[in-house]
Amino acid sequence: MPRVLLIEDDPSVREGVELGLRRRGHEVRTAPTGEAGLAALGEFRPDLLLLDLMLPGMNGVQVCRRVREDSQLPIIMLTARGDDFDVVVGLEAGADDYIVKPARTEVIEARIRAVLRRIEDPGAGRSAVEVHGELTIDRAGLTVARAGERIALAPSEMKLLLHLSAAPEQVFSRQQLLEHVWEHSYHGDARLVDACVRRLRNKIEDVPGEPRYIQTLRGFGYRFGPL
Fold first, then answer.
1. pLDDT, tens digit, for every residue of 3-58?
2. Long-range contacts: 128-137, Cβ < 8 Å, 24+?
3. For the stretch 146-166, what's the b/e string if a residue is b when 16 or more beta carbons lie within 10 angstroms of its beta carbon?
4. Strand 3-7 vs strand 48-52: parallel, antiparallel, or unpaired?
5. 43 by DSSP, 3-state: which?
6. What is the pLDDT of residues 161-214, one digit of tens each?
7. Which among 169, 166, 218, 170 is positioned nearest to 194, based on CA atoms?
8. Alpha carbon of 95 to those of 49, 135, 217: distances in Å?
9. Rounded distance, CA 14 to CA 50, Å?
10. Structural element, H or E, at residue 17
11. CA distances from 148 to 135, 204, 214 (A)
């Protein structure tokens, strides 16, 4: 079972989530502050980080940015308000998903499994290595390079790129992408998609504001197709 690091300052929430995940077989390490959580990362080596947004001192957004400086560890943010402006900032900082508290253990478990699920190649039958202009996508090795230089992608970014590039020129709505990439079958939050697209563009596009690879069709969604 995946090893989970939980950074949460509320003792009742921390203990409840830890107990629920341990009962489901996870090895869990907890930390009450961002600083303590960052210190535990190297020692515990988790498979996933559950990160509270509103932490004392170093907040969740700052922790997320620190982690993303040298790691693509899957990150799910915990927030008390789904409409919080900081949710968008957290997603922009590199979080793969978020959960609104309070949340049942089965909901947290489902999100963990969705983020950690093996990236299945949606382009069955396609070449394992594809070259799109300066962008090279190795579907078998799950690596991406631009002009020969390897690019580190978070799990949600990799899944999104694989899904879009498997069907060049096909337009996908935000809801379709939520269902296929994040596995949110309900009417999900389009902010997840938009934030991930912006992060991905910042990594693979020469000029993110004038994208060649991931194009926006206003009112419809996104498509992949190098210009």
1. 999 999 999 999 999 999 999 999 999 999 999 999 999 899 999 999 999 999 99
2. 130/165, 132/165, 132/213, 132/226, 133/212, 133/213, 133/226, 134/206, 135/204, 135/213, 135/226, 137/161, 137/162, 137/165
3. beeeebebbbbbbbbbbbbbb
4. parallel
5. helix
6. 999 999 988 999 999 999 989 988 666 688 899 999 999 999 999 999 999 999
7. 218
8. 10, 24, 25
9. 10
10. helix 11-23
11. 8, 12, 19
Residues 82, 85: Cα–Cα separation, whole Å: 9
For 45, 48, 107, 108, 139, the CA distances from 23, given in Å and listed in that order, are 20, 17, 14, 13, 35
Task: Give the amino acid at 225.
Answer: G
Radius of gyration of the chain from its Cα atoms, rounded to whole angstroms: 18
In the chain, DSSP finds a helix count (H) and a strand count (E) of 8, 11
- Cβ 213 vs Cβ 204: under 8 Å: yes
Q: Tell me if residue 170 falls in helix, strand or coil.
A: coil
Paired tokens of 212:
């060649």
Q: How far apart are CA 74 and CA 95, in angstroms?
A: 7
Cα-based torsion angle of the residue sequence 198, 200, 206, 209 in order, rounded to the nearest 10 degrees: -10
